[in-house]
Amino acid sequence: MDSDSTLADVHPPELRRRARAGRRAVLVVLALVVLAGATTLLGVRTGTASTTDGTWSLQGRYPQIARSGLDVVWQVRVTHPGGFREPIRIAVNGSFFDIFETQGFHPEPSKTTRDDRWLYLEFDPPPGDEFLVDYDAYIQGSSQLGRRGEVRLMDGERPRLSVTYRTWLAP
């Protein structure tokens, strides 16, 4: 091709095909992100983990997927037919709460203690067959990684029931 030709700056056909394929790939990825956002796949999700031994039931609702700064649900429900005669003692792995900013537990525990691994929450026995505690919280702005959580319903010093879960934090 002559260097004075007006076609000298036109890219060869192979280069144009690769550029077009690259633009299409970027558009597909962008469309998938928009579709995931439109279908709330990128939003906050709440998971549930539960177990029972036939008499006692333990259910935990937790933030399965969350983002920094967003309100999340963390809730523990204990059910026992015939009600509760003694205080309810719940143990939560203490490092799980490191990713939260909180307004506290509702109801407030009557007693709290912590060792190097567990936060123990003790609640006065409620009327009825069901006990429910909420943790009013949102994810700290500086939290970038999720955490593994575990909740135990304690029977004295040993766990009666236990549920585990994982919270993923999206950027």
Structure description:
There is one protein chain. The protein has one helix and eleven strands. With 171 residues, it is an alpha+beta fold. Strands 1, 2, 3, 4, 5, 6, 7, 8, 9, 10 and 11 form an eleven-stranded mixed β-sheet that branches. The mean pLDDT is 91.
Summed up:
The protein has 171 residues and is of the alpha+beta class.
Protein structure class? alpha+beta
Identify low-pLDDT runs. none
Proportion of beta-strand residues? over 45%
Average pLDDT level: 91
Shape: elongated
End-to-end separation: 51 Å
Biggest sheet descriptor: 11 strands, mixed
Query: Helix coverage percent of residues?
Result: 10-25%
Count of helices? 1
Please trace the helix and strand order, writing H or E for each element: HEEEEEEEEEEE
How many strands in all? 11
What Rg, in angstroms, do the CA atoms define? 26 Å
Q: Keyphrases for this structure?
A:
171 residues; alpha+beta; eleven-stranded mixed β-sheet; 11 strands; 47% strand
